[in-house]
Amino acid sequence: MTIVYPRRQRQLESLVRKLGLPLEAPIKWQLLDLALTHPTVSDSANYEQLEFVGDAVVRLAAAVILWEKYPDCQVGDFAAIRSVLVSDRILAQLAREYGLELYLLVAGSATSDKIGQESRLADAFEAVLGALYLSTNNLDLIRSWLDPHFEQLATEIRLDPARLNYKAALQEWTQAQFKVLPEYRVEEINQPNRNQERFAAEVWLHGKKLGEGRGRSIKAAEQAAAKVAFLAVNNPENT
């Protein structure tokens, strides 16, 4: 099944090659086209339904990989690791690695909305997984290229005491120590290059600044600040 427009078909084929899949694979191209169409382009023909499917698919893929790679892992650890693997932050990161933004059709204000880019990329990534899953009704078109990413990330997460989610880890620490939540203060930075880190964040506790960081989104900046703070409060030299 091919797309009506040859130029779009070539774009989708380029993405498929980046994923390492053969063009002869049983891909439903119309679904893949939908997976890369933002709601601003069409109210009815967009990635929202495929994103719903892909949300379940990415959780299943992560669970299977963890079950195979770490058979002795506790269920609670499985859940903690998977929550990071399927987070918007990680999915958007993977989407960028494959240049998904080059294939995502957007219109209107979304074309210049840098703040919402992470969510759009994560949603589109899930939608692509949904399209590939529905092409075969299994994970055959997904695991060959997604497994290596998740395996590497899972290894990093297991070695990281904060599970690569420093905001959650810092919150657990402050609640355990002081029964309060940390406070984040974020401001937008004027940058000549819009691709640079756009936000600066500080994290405070009891009137003391624990850390600061920058990021392309508010979430990324807060995560960067939380990392600095979490590593500082868990440094034995500071205790």
From TrEMBL:
Cofactor (UniProt): Mg(2+)
Known EC number: 3.1.26.3
A GO term for molecular function: ribonuclease III activity
Subunit structure: Homodimer.
Claim: tRNA processing is one of the keywords in the record: yes
Gene designation per UniProt: rnc
Annotated Mg(2+) binding sites: E51, D123, E126
Keyword set includes Transcription regulation: no
Coiled coil: none
PROSITE patterns, A to Z: DS_RBD (PS50137), RNASE_3_1 (PS00517), RNASE_3_2 (PS50142)
Reaction(s) the record says it catalyses: Endonucleolytic cleavage to 5'-phosphomonoester
Enzyme class: hydrolase
Organism: Nostoc spongiaeforme FACHB-130
DRBM domain residues: 165-235
Cellular compartment(s): Cytoplasm
Protein name: Ribonuclease 3
SUPFAM superfamilies: dsRNA-binding domain-like (SSF54768), RNase III domain-like (SSF69065)
Every RNase III domain range: 12-137
CDD domains: DSRM_RNAse_III_family, RIBOc
